[in-house]
Design brief:
Oligomer: single chain
Number of strands: 5
Number of helices: 6
Strand order of the largest sheet: 2-4-5
Helix content: 40-55%
Order of helices and strands: HEHEEHEHEHH
Length: about 170
């Protein structure tokens, strides 16, 4: 566990190169469904809309799985009653120069991975800080590192991340 934690901290600080391999994100997500159901409990239903024709991506599998777990745990905590729906979607997306420039990435073909929930949502001030290291809305129950690690992984992988909340 210590070795794994050290690896994550080095990757987080960008001092360790990613170990990218060719992945089919939809297949990986389908294989994680049972684990996700156990993590978010039986009172939260999981909807998966995974593209069968998804393009292959080059990602660090362990980092992707960590990002998935962080996103799902945060979604679960956002559903205060312990009930709700967690949705996971994948799709192919070709971005024009204008669209890519708006997102701060280069134009081209991307795989879109979306996690959404029926939780309480966040106000604009919270959304603005959600990826800051050590920012948490969970008080003593959270470290504030989960979403900052997700952000770091997405950036290292050449992607972008967006948050929408109401």
């Amino acid at each position: 566990r210590g070795t794994a934690l050290t690896k994550k901290l080095l990757a987080f600080s960008k001092q360790q190169p990613i170990e990218a391999t060719a992945l089919d994100v939809s297949t990986l997500l389908a294989g994680q469904r049972d684990l996700l159901e156990k993590i978010v409990t039986a009172r939260i239903s999981i909807n998966m809309d995974l593209s069968a024709e998804l393009w292959t991506v080059w990602l660090d599998k362990g980092d992707f799985e960590d990002a998935l777990m962080n996103l799902c745990i945060n979604a679960m905590h956002a559903m205060e009653t312990g009930e709700g729906v967690l949705s996971v979607e994948t799709s192919n997306q070709s971005l024009s120069t204008l669209d890519a420039e708006h997102l701060g990435i280069v134009a081209g073909d991307y795989v879109r991975f979306c996690v959404s929930d029926t939780g309480k949502g966040m106000d604009k001030d919270t959304v603005a800080k959600v990826f800051d290291p050590f920012f948490t809305t969970k008080g003593e129950l959270g470290t504030g590192l989960g979403l900052s690690q997700v952000y770091g992984f997405v950036e290292r992988s050449g992607g972008t991340i967006q948050v929408y909340s109401e």
